[in-house]
Amino acid sequence: MKRILLTLMTIITMTNTTEVNAQQTDVLRIETTLNYYLTGLVNNDAETLTKAFHPTATMKWIGEKYTEVNAIEGLTEGMDGTPYKEKIKTRVVSISIAGDAASAQLEIQFPTFTYIDFMHVLKIEGEWKIVSKIFHTRQDSKL
């Protein structure tokens, strides 16, 4: 009886360890995808930024009115590869995963405002891609 119980506990522990390792791997892969976006944005680099997105990804926000565009087109329009001169801080605030779906919150802080991005990310054919982005612009005091 002890041997059966010990075997079951070992199997359960191995299964939990495998699931935790798989989720940690997914977190790293999602972070890589998010960093393509952040690096591309900060460096004004359309090629790097595009790696983060599925081709049909959307970007939505509320300005004077509700707006929805293709994320890649909206973000890369006017990008020329010249990095921003001002200091920009970026960070991944959180990542939440459920199977092949994830959400992430990011912050991109410019000197007088911060973009707060909420990304929806899907594992598509083994690759994590951003499929939608919504954001809010928070006005900050001058640094």
What brief labels describe this structure?
single chain, 143 residues, alpha+beta, Nuclear Transport Factor 2, Chain: A, 6-stranded mixed sheet, 41% strand
Fold and architecture overview:
With 143 residues, the protein is of the alpha+beta class. The chain has a single domain (2-139), classed as Nuclear Transport Factor 2, Chain: A. Helices cover 36% and strands 41% of the residues. The chain is built from three helices and six strands. It has helices at 2-42, 46-50, 71-76, and strands spanning 53-62, 66-70, 89-98, 101-109, 113-124, 127-139. A six-stranded mixed sheet has the order 2-1-6-5-4-3. A hairpin with a 2-residue loop joins β5 (113-124) and β6. It is elongated. The N and C termini lie far apart (67 Å). The mean pLDDT is 88.
List the helices and strands and how they pair.
Blueprint: H1 2-42, H2 46-50, E1 53-62, E2 66-70, H3 71-76, E3 89-98, E4 101-109, E5 113-124, E6 127-139
Parallel strand pairs: 1-6
Antiparallel strand pairs: 1-2, 3-4, 4-5, 5-6
Distance between the termini: 67 Å
**Helix and strand composition category:** alpha+beta
Residue share in helix: 25-40%
Share of β-strand residues: 35-45%
One letter per element, helices H and strands E, the order comes to HHEEHEEEE
Number of strands: 6
CATH topology-level name? Nuclear Transport Factor 2, Chain: A
> In the residues, how many domains can be counted?
1
Q: What kind of sheet is the major sheet?
A: 6 strands, mixed
Radius of gyration: 19 Å
Strand order of the largest sheet: 2-1-6-5-4-3
Mean pLDDT: 88
Top CATH class? Alpha Beta
Unreliable runs, pLDDT <50, ≥5 residues?
A: none
Number of helices: 3
CATH architecture: Roll
Specify the overall morphology.
elongated
